[in-house]
């Protein structure tokens, strides 16, 4: 079996589009929430979102690219290029038939679907764009990344709602571990801050109706009332240890475990006892070959909904010990849906590299029913050797990865 290491990452997020900015805001607990600017949201009942700001489109794209690719694909490609640059991989020197891409998305080109359906309804089927299908389908973040870099190995887009990014990383880990690939670019991407995206989640009462950015996404707080919609992408370069060492790569961290389960309980609600999520955590640490007491940090799914946070806390209590510090970086980034797992894997990696626990920001009172060891409001400097990152999706999907600090 191959050991699987991380040699690069790239991020497009509401709190930064480069390592330095993202890390600074993660440490300082600076959120990325503000009024929705992408459309007039006044009739939705929702005021705030976590939009990607100052996206450096010109770095890798020309104007025509925005017509031929949906925004979530642009975020994925940008993050993949940034991750490749950090990794130092020269694709000219690689066996690209053993170089894969696994980038998930929960919804894909939802903005295109919205706009083209309205156009068809108003002007007739003949006016639907010939680019509708390639813009809208969920697999095109992975497909476009592979096309751009010439990756001819496995190319898959996992679609498991909000667990998509973590499932993609976990499946890439297993693929390399068992020898099918040398390198895989893995993560998640999403861009659903549009009228139908906000309206749909608002109809589920899943979104926070707060107008105060300081009290909108407050996971584990007694007064939490839903999540803030985020957007962006998080992408890792995963390699077999042998491949990374052969080319003299700088190793940032190691993935050592993966758990994937299903609640089989409800379409949108988690099992109240967190049983499915607990099993996924246990699977990940079992594969890692460690004990529950070895886990120092849990990057929780932590959506700031009443049902999720209570069930996930129960899952963490069941699977781990109270020594594990817990936080939800969705208090800073909002919820990136299928892109969440990629961005949160990067947050977990940075926590390991820089030996700190990111805070759960803007908490006034932790819900007394939540017994997990929540780090609130300020980052905590502490040794972090193992971190677990949880993602839980509608449909009962649970995905957990376990990351380890790199040691020669």
TrEMBL record:
It catalyses: a fatty acyl-[ACP] + malonyl-[ACP] + H(+) = a 3-oxoacyl-[ACP] + holo-[ACP] + CO2; (9Z)-hexadecenoyl-[ACP] + malonyl-[ACP] + H(+) = 3-oxo-(11Z)-octadecenoyl-[ACP] + holo-[ACP] + CO2. One of its GO terms (molecular function) is 3-oxoacyl-[acyl-carrier-protein] synthase activity. PROSITE patterns: KS3_1, KS3_2. Residues 1-405 form the Ketosynthase family 3 (KS3) domain. Pathway: Lipid metabolism; fatty acid biosynthesis. Pfam families: ketoacyl-synt, Ketoacyl-synt_C. The keyword Repeat does not apply. InterPro entries: 3-oxoacyl-ACP_synth-2, Beta-ketoacyl_synthase, Ketoacyl_synth_AS, Ketoacyl_synth_C, Ketoacyl_synth_N, PKS_Beta-ketoAc_synthase_dom, Thiolase-like. The keyword Glycosyltransferase does not apply. Its EC number is 2.3.1.179. SUPFAM superfamilies: Thiolase-like. It is an enzyme of class 2 (transferase). Transmembrane segments: none annotated. Keywords: Acyltransferase, Fatty acid biosynthesis, Fatty acid metabolism, Lipid biosynthesis, Lipid metabolism, Transferase. Signal peptide: none annotated. Belongs to the thiolase-like superfamily. Beta-ketoacyl-ACP synthases family. NCBIfam families: fabF, PRK07314.1. Involved in the type II fatty acid elongation cycle. Catalyzes the elongation of a wide range of acyl-ACP by the addition of two carbons from malonyl-ACP to an acyl acceptor. Can efficiently catalyze the conversion of palmitoleoyl-ACP (cis-hexadec-9-enoyl-ACP) to cis-vaccenoyl-ACP (cis-octadec-11-enoyl-ACP), an essential step in the thermal regulation of fatty acid composition. This is 3-oxoacyl-[acyl-carrier-protein] synthase 2. It comes from Enterococcus dongliensis. The gene is fabF.
